[in-house]
Amino acid sequence: MHSTIVRAQNVFGFFTTVAFVVAALIAASDLTVPRAPKAEVTANSVQVVKGRPHYYSTKKEEYAVIRFTMSADLSSLFTWNTKQVFVWVSASWPNATSTDGELSNEAVIWDSIITNPSADHLMNIGPAAMKKLVKSAKGKSIDPKRGILALKNQKPKYQITAPTGKLAETNDVVLKVHYNVQPWVGVLTWTPQIEFLGWKKLKGGVSKAFALPAIKKKETAEKKA
Amino acid sequence: MQSKLVVGGVCSEPIRNGPEVAPTQYGGTAKVQVSSTPSGLLDEFATIDFTNAITVSHDPHKFPPLTKRLNIELAFSSILNAHIQSACYLVAALTATSLPSLTMLSALGNPRQAAAQILNFGLILSTAFMMWKGLSVIADSPSPIVVVLSGSMEPAFQRGDLLFLWNRNLLEDTKVGEIVVYNVKGKDIPIVHRLVRKFGTGEGAKLLTKGDNNVADDTELYARGQDYIERKDIIGSVVAYIPLVGYVTIMLSEHPWLKTVMLGIMGLVVVLQRE
Description:
The structure holds 2 protein chains of 2 kinds. Chain A is an alpha+beta fold. Helix content of chain A is about 20%, strand content about 30%. In chain A, the strands form 2 sheets. A 4-stranded mixed sheet of chain A has the order 5-2-1-9, with no helix packed on it. The longest helix of chain A is centred in the N-terminal third of the chain and has 26 residues, at about 5-30. Chain A starts with a helix and ends with a helix. Chain B has 5 helices and 9 strands; from the N terminus they run βββαααββββββαα. Chain B is α+β, with helices and mostly antiparallel strands. Chain B has helices spanning about 50-55, 65-95, 110-140, 245-255, 255-270; strands at about 10, 30-35, 45-50, 145-150, 160-165, 180-185, 190-200, 205-210, 235-240. In chain B, strands 1-4-5-9-6-7-8 form a 7-stranded mixed sheet. Chain B has a two-stranded antiparallel ribbon with strand order 2-3. Strand 4 (about 105-115) of chain A pairs antiparallel with strand 7 of chain B, so a sheet runs across the interface. Chain B: One of its GO terms (molecular function) is serine-type endopeptidase activity.
């Protein structure tokens, strides 16, 4: 009853209970911080080019290269329990055959990992970039300023295609800004569909609908002409 | 049956610095080093039957990276088995240490007490099993809690982090941006990655995944000739996160001597506790 082992068990049991309660409280504290993110996104130049999925492939597919301008204020997402915010811009478009206008296709064209300074050391970047990143927060463990983004005529990170390989002259394409908040412990949250307590929906964040152009001729061909 | 008690093992995209397999090595077994993290933090060893690996994909001239990759994946599935086994040890160990009466097995002289202890042990095992299966039913996922085994989702998830999965589409389809755990056809390796493309809706939608920390998307990881995964390949979307807790299982699978030490301590406890 009062042996060392029983005591060790009790201490361990108490430790795990306390650890889980503290973790639960930290996770619940997320709800007390209001979130009011907003974003604006517009498509700039849009091109459709032909290409191959990888070097060995003989398949030719159409790729859309969508340059965009985005400004976002996600600063309210950064709290003491925020590990990183994953932001991305996706292009959505309806099926060619659909009549209800449902955007049944979606592909990410650009994304970014924004760490809270407390998680900077976990980033997989080179030493110089790491030094710069750590310096940018100067000893702060929370830096809401990192949530303010301004991208001008940004080149997409991903050139998108469709399983059919056809993408030129697609109508009603829209760009959308999304985010995913990764906590240190607790529930992961995405761009909300509903308002919940102090958490507002993302204000804006959807571009006007635009159409993808016809395939761009190869520049060499243009030069010859 | 026992392996289902396990806190499910998940490796997300094991391959970065795979071994260079020289063609002369084909046809036998070889011990290779598998780097399980992009940074090569923890290297693991596994024996691969190369005859087996080659039947899966022997096309070194056309797809050298792919051949290499498949070999390593075979290696990794054996590591995963070891992992599952060690998690069983862990469940048993935790059960035993959390139950004082069990540590008094020295009271075996009394048959009635011994029977009570055995029943008690069975009760605890079945409770754990029921909780796991209950969670599984609620989340509609064969493995509602998984441990992250690789660093391809860094900095969001590190090795050893615990993820809670949800596999129901109550309000809407699984959509782009969600972090899903999926199985590749014909391979028994669950992978945790983010959905980056979705074409179509419902069950037949074509989905593409990518690890946040990886440069390329997962097309290379899928089965041969498979360009997309489908909803049925997904065993759940990540909804909640606890850091580090699952690291014990990784420790046990990577350092087998720890299992011996653990069992030894348990044995000592049983012997020393004479009350």
